[in-house]
Prior knowledge:
It contains 18 helices and 44 strands. It is α/β, with parallel strands linked by helices. Among the domains are: 44-265, 3-Layer(aba) Sandwich (Rossmann fold); 485-596, Immunoglobulin-like; 599-807, Class I glutamine amidotransferase (GATase) domain (Rossmann fold, 3-Layer(aba) Sandwich), CATH 3.40.50.880. The strands form eleven sheets. Strands 1, 13, 15, 16, 17, 18, 19, 20 and 21 form a nine-stranded mixed sheet that branches. A seven-stranded mixed sheet has the order 4-3-2-5-6-12-9, sandwiched between helices. Residues 1-17 have low confidence and may be disordered.
Amino acid sequence: xxxxxxxxSILCSRYATAQQFRPQPSSAIFQELQQLQRxxxxxxxAAHPDDENTRLITYLVHHDHINTIYLSxxxxxxxxxxxxxxxxxxxGLIRTNEMMRARQLDGAGQLFTQFVDFGFSxxxxxxxxxxxxxxxxxxxKQAIQQYRPDVxxxxxxxxxxxxxxxxxxxxxxxxxxxEELQASTDPNIWKxxxxxxxxxxxxxxxxxxxxxxxxxxxxxxxxxxxxxGELAGRSRSEHKSQGAGTPQTYGIxxxxxxxxxxxxxxxxxxxxxxxSWNRVGAPQIGKQIAAVINRFDFTHPEKSVEALVKIRKQxxxxxxxxxxxxxxxxxxxxxxILHCAGIQAEAxxxxxxxxxxxxxPVTVNxxxxxxxxxxxxxxYRDRNNCIPAxxxxxxxxxxxxLFAFPVTAQVPLTEPFWMQQEPKxxxxxxxxxxxxxxxNIPDFVLSLQINIGTEAFTLPVPISYKQLNPTRGDVIExxxxxxxxxxxxxxxxxxxxxxxxxxxxxxxxxxxxxxxATLLVYQGQEIVARKALSALxxxxxxxxxxxxxxxxxxxxxxxxxxxxTGNQQYDKTLHLIQYEHIPALQYFEPAQSVLVQKxxxxxxxxKIGYIAGAGDKVAEALSLSGFEVSMLSDADLSHPAGLAKYxxxxxxxxxxxxxxxxxxxxxxxxxxxxxxxxxVMQYNTSMGLELPExxxxxxxxxxxxxxxEQATVTFINPADxxxxxxxxxxxxDFDNWVQERGIYYPSKWDKAYVPVLxxxxxxxxxLNSAILYAPYGKGWFVYTGLAFxxxxxxxxxxxxxxxxxxxxxxxxx
Length: 813
């Protein structure tokens, strides 16, 4: 079982989205053989998905044939999302899977620590006020001990030129981890040879200096049919939610390195590191691998199997002192042998979604491209559920086996392991046995025992679902295990008014029938409403309305929904993320609604037109707060006269970055303003503007931001009408903001604009452009960099009061 776990782990990190086992082409097998010949590891360390230098990583994997691992401290939860409205942990889930797609392309491994990306920070001190410095260092040390890298490479310097405080913190943590390991007297502690900083020139930040070690890279690789920079461009472009599309480059260029600790180098990154099989006292194994490489037949890779099987026995016999390398190289070698043998296997379920109590029909299709291969046994989930098979697999012919497996209560729900519990102290809570893994170790999986001659190989094949898409061909997705029931609040935010009962609705989805149940609504530990339900049919989706009496409401920010039946309780909301570039992603959140006590007035604004940007939940929050919100289509924007029916038009976040199509409609929008309308535009980023003229009066954006969500806010003119009507804004309205105050504040603006607020991060100059407004013709235009897209969905009342005032810009009592 231990060996199976190890193989599952490496499959999880290297082939995260693959639901079939497929043989690699001969060029890839040849690369794998060359890596088998090298005993060494490089660990690249930074803070987020998309921080890694994919060009260097690709070079290390495919030119140096060195096991290369990217350790990202976070999953990118605090970033921006150019694809949709997912934020926080859901965005981190997307970015994790984008990262795995990138690693599939460039061939490196991927690790993460437990730390939550809380958003942009300006200094490492600010970062370590969220993350415990010692715990970050220990997490890096743990990853080093787990994978034993010879060389550590930081993407960012310890001196702050990386900009983002989390960037600098990643380098500081790596340096402290390196130094603490070097100082250890424990003979069992792994000590890397050196720590390097991979210098860069990004925009105005230049860390390249004379005297740094130069490494020429980006050569053309005929086995790849492209340069390392070309492959790296495709790899980095997988970070699609960040808009990180990267050009493919060719032509040799230098990478610069600076020594941060350990032994200096003069010739290569591996100076003083023995990367041959002499390292473990087995030079004969190295010679035999070299012989396989020299005789490798690209048209018949199966000819190498016999020699590789003999090498396998020798590696397995290495003494206990070399257990790490024996384990590591056996994992690599087993993959190579299966690839050379042309093994292809898939386990296809009859349906994509199952729940406890189901029986799951599974078809196993397996083939090889050589004689003498046998399927000996099939294991369902673990070694305790064995089905003897004993069937020969013919050369290039498909063997099909049919099974039906029970989905028991012991099969866990399909959800990311790090999202099973709420984070604490800005760390995800990892269930055992997870440490630094990228994705779940597959649980809903078949393990096939493949015999090649006298040698047995374990091949994990996740149970998957395959369907034919008219435009994409075969689409293979994991089988998802869902609960018997889930609850979706139809109003994720509820606005309570004094002395009024609350009306709310939930959608209950059932996958097994239930005779009787009770829907309970909790506020804190108190039940504030209940409703008896009966005869709930299997595969039904029912909308249940429930009233919460005003007298029953207590103090508390959320209402929780629980479906109780017998001794079972179901209290989760299912979320499904679907984008073509990553597999379908399923996760759960507590079934609850944010409860907001209404404390704002909106006497003159009811109808809002909303122009969608990169994706946010502001329109939904406004709608749930009682406004009539209409999403404006191209047809709506094509007829400016029709916009007059709206009291105000709001632009979604990053609309000027992602909506190039709006250029044709902007004159009509400014016409709407000039004739007496109002437009409120939320933040855009300073880079990648598709609409340079996104305001009726000149306005230039910067990268300035206020990252401290508790930063003091000063009113430039306390009597400003925007702070007085229809809600009197006070300092209390800036309490309890989440993640940040605002981002990408304007740096220059037309003199007609009126600045409203002044705020500053510690040690910095005040920024006065969080809100700018100006008259234009008979109407008004507002630009705001404040993070309303985070505050309104979170139910922040003060932010809502201020936003309502923006909607009333220019109006008088």
